[in-house]
Design a protein that fits this description.
Blueprint (H helix, E strand, L loop, with lengths): L4 E5 L6 E6 L16 E2 L10 E5 L4 E5 L5 E4 L5 E3 L10 E4 L1 H9 L4 E4 L2 E4 L4 H35 L3 E3 L4 E2 H18 L1
Antiparallel strand pairs: 1-2, 1-3, 4-5, 6-7, 6-8, 9-10, 11-12
Helix pairs in contact: 2-3
Length: 188
């Protein structure tokens, strides 16, 4: 006995859901009952990241990236694709590893035309890292200078000898450290 099947699709996007055996019409045994959101027309075979969509009269194959990750090219915000069709304009499909890297190091990625590109092997990114290192070092020097300023004030208030053999005072010692740090800061 041949089993007749119907092919169901969802109500939201009319994407193929599954194949089910049809039930005979109890009043007309030569006919089969067709549930809502279904057709007797078999959908075409689909490949990975494709889905059959019922157009009302036939099946159409559309890209299907639902459940995969995408990145907003402008904001670098990661989200899950929840729609059928090509990836929307302004977004780019990414792997979980790339998504993690974008979230961890967004400065490694730059919008070039309509894509987000990894620039970690470029001179631009190397210059960025150098500038970042210089900024960190400047911040460290400024913190050390502030600390030394408070020590120098104490040394002025309580003049005492740091090194008995050379006669160097604590104020002389702190002043020398300040001079060295200021020279380094000006060379950065």
């Amino acid at each position: 006995m041949n089993t007749k099947y119907y092919y169901s699709f969802n109500s939201e996007g009319k994407a193929f859901v599954g194949k089910y055996p049809a039930i005979k019409n109890p009043r007309r045994q030569s006919e089969y009952l067709l549930p809502a959101q279904a057709t007797f027309k078999e959908p075409p075979e689909t490949k990975e990241n494709e889905v059959a969509i019922w157009s009302g009269s036939d099946w159409v194959i559309e890209p299907d990236f639902r459940g995969l990750l995408q990145v907003d090219i402008e904001t670098k915000e990661i989200s899950t694709i929840e729609y059928v069709g090509a990836v929307k304009t302004g977004f780019q499909k990414v792997s979980e590893d790339v998504a993690q890297e974008i979230q961890t190091n967004p400065e490694k990625f730059k919008k070039i035309e309509t894509s987000l590109v990894d620039i970690s092997n470029t001179e631009e990114y190397k210059n960025y890292l150098r500038e970042k290192e210089v900024a960190i070092r400047k911040s460290e020097i400024e913190r050390q200078l502030l600390e030394l300023d408070s020590k120098r004030i104490r040394a002025i208030c309580e003049p005492s000898i740091k090194d008995e053999t050379t006669g160097e005072t604590w104020l002389d010692y702190y002043n020398q450290q300040v001079t060295t740090l200021r020279e380094e800061l000006s060379n950065l």
